[in-house]
Design goal:
Distance between the termini: 39 Å
Protein name: SpoIVB peptidase
Shape: elongated
Number of domains: 2
Pfam family, one: Peptidase_S55
Helix content: under 10%
Organism: Lysinibacillus sphaericus OT4b.31
CATH class of the largest domain: Mainly Beta
Number of helices: 4
Length: 316
């Protein structure tokens, strides 16, 4: 049985370029990946996934945090399920829009509301690199932002899993496309998620991926990156990583801009998709960077972070 993963990627209408220093990593080598990954964060609280109208005509607002049900402190969805198993009237205490709110629910209504609660955030993206020396990995190249909370969630733990691309919805101008992915429930996790930063997610690689890993290659620093031909590694069908041609058009302040030139990728995806964030960029046999964004009105155009900058920020 496949588990579906909601699509998560930041696609701003405008790309903001940050002027940040880059720490040198002389002759550093990383393994470029490109696999689609499922991402799961276990949150530090239980919250309402979207607005729910109660029998009392009160609204339980999306994003509200469930703090207590009767006298039971709620930290996980299991806590909430155990609390609502009690019969009779229930008092729910929540934090909603900065205020503490109390609602009264009967047991049958509480059973209905439980289906609108969640204690995890999940999504898909692309694995960028594995460091063969430290066994750390980096992915996405940008932060995970929960669609309900509209912010980076506070989380207790996190995991990444190998995903398989089942379908593609093509990008068109003004309408970003996306990958539809799944993972097997019994799939072992690939690694932990220890950090969720504006430069990507980072954690420990756990060696459960049975396929042979690619060869580590030297990273390329910004001063050596040229405009012109390069490649991206990404999966657009199943779990197979393929190589596609791009043209780098701009290099500045730890960021890149590029245009997809590969006709196969354009025909299949329309350009850059949600879920492609983190795809490695290679130029002249060296590791350049990771895809982070697309230009919504021009889906063949994308933006990326240099892998030197991404690696630098993983240590903060």
């Amino acid at each position: 049985m496949n588990r579906r993963w909601r699509q998560f990627v930041i696609l701003p209408m405008l790309i903001v370029f940050l002027c940040l220093p880059i720490q040198a990593f002389a002759a550093k080598k990383l393994i470029p990946m490109g696999e689609a990954i499922g991402i799961q964060l276990q949150l530090s609280h239980v919250f309402v996934a979207h607005d729910v109208l109660l029998a009392s005509n009160q609204w339980m607002k999306g994003g509200a945090v469930i703090e207590k049900i009767n006298d039971t402190t709620v930290k996980t969805l299991d806590d909430a399920k155990q609390a609502i198993a009690q019969q009779g009237q229930q008092t729910w205490t929540m934090k909603s829009e900065g205020k503490q709110v109390t609602v009264e629910l009967k047991d049958k209504e509480a059973e209905h509301v439980i289906s609108f609660l969640k204690d995890e955030t999940d999504g898909v993206g692309t694995l960028t690199y594995i460091d063969p020396e430290t066994k750390n990995y980096g992915a996405l190249g940008h932060q995970i932002v929960d669609s309900t909370l509209q912010e980076a969630p506070v989380f207790r733990a996190g995991s990444i899993f190998l995903a398989s691309i089942q379908q593609i919805r093509k990008s068109t101008p003004g309408q970003p496309g996306y990958k539809i992915s799944s993972i097997e429930k019994h799939q072992e996790r690939l690694g932990s998620i220890d950090k969720n930063t504006v430069y990507g997610i980072f954690g420990r690689w756990e060696d459960s991926y049975q396929q042979r890993l690619p060869k580590a290659i030297e990273i390329m620093h910004e001063k050596d990156i040229k405009t012109g031909k390069a490649q991206i590694y990404t999966a657009i069908e199943g779990s197979k990583v393929e190589t596609f041609s791009i043209d780098i058009t701009k290099v500045e302040n730890g960021r890149l801009e590029f245009v997809v030139s590969d006709q196969k990728l354009i025909e299949k995806t329309g350009g850059i998709l949600q879920g492609m964030s983190g795809s490695p960029i290679i130029q002249d046999g060296r590791f350049v960077g990771a895809v982070t964004h697309m230009f919504v009105e021009e889906p063949k155009k994308g933006a990326a972070i240099t892998v030197a900058e991404m690696l630098n920020k993983s240590h903060e």
